[in-house]
Design brief:
The chain contains eleven helices and six strands. 50% of the residues lie in helices and 10% in strands. Helix 8 links the parallel strand 4 and strand 5.
Length: 242
């Protein structure tokens, strides 16, 4: 894509996933890309992986044994790798070594089939961390196939902000939910505007991911799909953070 853009009179900002650091460094040795390749905007996937893992352990409570497993997305995309590494760090910091890590490739049906196998493999399983909402839906379907209650018998953590996952978080089927990176598109547009108007560029990416708890302002705004108010809330909290 970048090779096709080279020489054209517009700038490029990569969103959510960046090219490899070595490739970016190499491009920035060239005068054209020094002027036309803007800093990337990549939310902190590792942070939300860590936060959701630790919150899952808190939901499980002190009386449990910490029998958890992870359903990651894939082995290639930075978002998947970083979310999963954050989750592993979150569990291990609490002294918990997950039973197994599998890759659901972001797909509901694949995660359902995997969870059916894993439930038989690990009797007494207590928690399942998933890298996105569709895989959480698949895991929950597998629990229900066996007559288990999500949020009571086995706790589920996930990441994303679809209407369905917000609803299931409210109902307690999903015990821990992280999200907010949908705001990255708005942040990118603001940065492009700042660059076009020669305003100072802040390369530090403000936190977008948060734990989403029913009844809180960001959760309510996401449920309402009130994007204007959500963006205003995000800008206010970002200013406080910085």
């Amino acid at each position: 894509m970048l090779a096709a853009f080279e020489g054209l009179p517009f700038k490029t900002l990569l969103l959510l996933n960046d090219i490899e650091p070595k490739a970016r460094h190499s491009l920035l040795q060239e005068p054209y890309w020094q002027q036309h390749l803007l800093p990337p905007l990549v939310p902190d996937n590792e942070r939300i992986g860590f936060l959701t893992a630790q919150a899952l352990l808190m939901q499980m409570g002190n009386k449990r044994q910490g029998k958890v497993l992870l359903i990651s997305g894939d082995k290639g995309t930075p978002a998947s790798i970083e979310r999963t590494q954050g989750a592993l760090n979150g569990f291990r910091q609490a002294g918990i070594e997950p039973l197994q890590l599998v890759y659901g490739h972001w797909q509901e049906q694949r995660a359902r089939a995997q969870t059916q196998v894993l439930l038989n493999r690990y009797p007494g399983l207590e928690g399942i961390w998933t890298a996105n909402d569709h895989m959480a839906f698949g895991a929950i379907a597998a629990l229900e196939d066996k007559g288990l209650r999500p949020g009571e018998d086995i706790f589920i953590a996930s990441i994303n902000t679809s209407s369905k996952v917000l609803d299931w978080r409210s109902q307690g089927h999903i015990s821990v939910l992280g999200g907010g990176h949908l705001l990255a598109g708005a942040e990118a547009l603001m940065r492009i505007r700042d660059d076009s108007e020669a305003r100072p560029w802040n390369e530090k990416v403000p936190p977008m991911f948060r734990l989403l708890v029913p009844g809180t302002e960001p959760f309510n705004l996401l449920e309402q799909r009130n994007w204007r108010a959500l963006l205003a809330w995000y800008q206010q909290t970002s200013e406080v953070t910085h």
